[in-house]
Specification:
By secondary structure, the protein is an alpha/beta fold. The chain has 15 helices and 20 strands. It folds into two domains: 108 residues, Urease, subunit C, domain 1 (Roll); 295 residues, TIM Barrel (Alpha-Beta Barrel), CATH 3.20.20.140. It is globular, with a radius of gyration of 22 Å.
Length: 458
Amino acid sequence: MEILIKDCNWIITQDEHRRVLRRASVLVKDGLIADIGRDLSGGDVVVNGEGKVLMPALINTHTHISMSLLRGYAEDLPLDRWLKEKVWPLERKFTERLCYVGALLGCLEMIRTGTACLVDMYYYAGMVAKAVKEAGLRGFIGQGLIDTVSDDRASDENLRRNFLTETYKAIKTIRELNDPKIKPIVAPHAPYTCSDELLMESQTMARRLNALVHIHLAETRREQMMFQRKYGCSVVEYLDKIGFLNGNVLAAHCVWLTRRDIGVLALKGVKVSHCPISNMKLGVGGVSPIPELMESGVLVSLGTDGPASNNTLDMFETMKFAALLQKHNRWDPGAVSVQQVLDMATVNASRSLGLENVVGRIEKGFEADLILLDIRSPNLQPIYSPENLISNIIYAARGLNVDSLLVQGRLLMLEKNFQTLDEEKVYGLVEDALRELGIKSSNNIRHEKNGNYKLTNR
């Protein structure tokens, strides 16, 4: 199968030299980028690149896509209350089917907004992976692991056994999908919800599976204070003492860090997924020290977090917030550059996942995870230089500017039309899921015969 993406106005390669090409085409053959240049021919399918920018598809390194069903459900609460009073009680009603439906909705949004690859931690991870496969996306999917909900971090053996059982079940399901784009990961939820025994068992499991370890880390000041009171050191230092940290760990958030913590993360090769929007929305009170992390050699990528704490899966929005938050917090407009932010969502993310020679760049031999952005849009004009183009993508673009998405050379969206998922069918499944969860709308908009709409209470 050949796809020719012809006569693009611009191509952002993200190659080693960060070249931006003008008036060029890309030929995709059997899922790989076969050629890049002008006057290319061929293609079983020809996609018009006129008025568009071709760039690597984005990579979301931390999310919980099944939480699409909880978008807008629990608002304006601090993280601890948000989890304990709202999210966890409702999640107890979640079934395999509900997680699958929520994941389908999340996949729709990611396709629509230009994300090709995700790292997901949630319940019923096998069903999440099933939805990701149906959508055609690339995924690193893990069952969240929890065995303690008390400040003493004592393991609840029943809880631990149940979560481990679900983890092995999810791994088996993911492997049976027989899709090399979808890989199982090991996902201990957080140091405050996992005992030392479970954390180390997670690492043992990951080594046996040759899998990534994904964890929430240093998200709130409360977490840091808990470890300082109990162990006399920061949560990062504690994880280092027990031997948990290594280059196989992808840590989400990393907001409340000391200089010493940053040094430990750098020394151990831990990767960081920065989630600026959920950190701001949940009021964690701090800002991840991204410039210091990068200066120390820590590989930083970007995550949206879940749709209940963001509330979107739009990585373009996340890129903008990642840039603005650092500038605002540092009183320094040069704290993080637009190129550094674009790297976080592409080449840094691919390196974090061991895909640095697979995706994240537009180069011959790389797999064709690509997006076309429609620049015939008022929010993306004018474009007069490569530097201005990158700036517009970070500060002005929105996911809804995405015109087409390819993953491994397969069109998942073409000219804003979904190719793999039935949009209306997914919305119908979501409505059924909300009824099953008992989430009812307090208002209803009724269409009147005179053509007007009337807001009524039910």
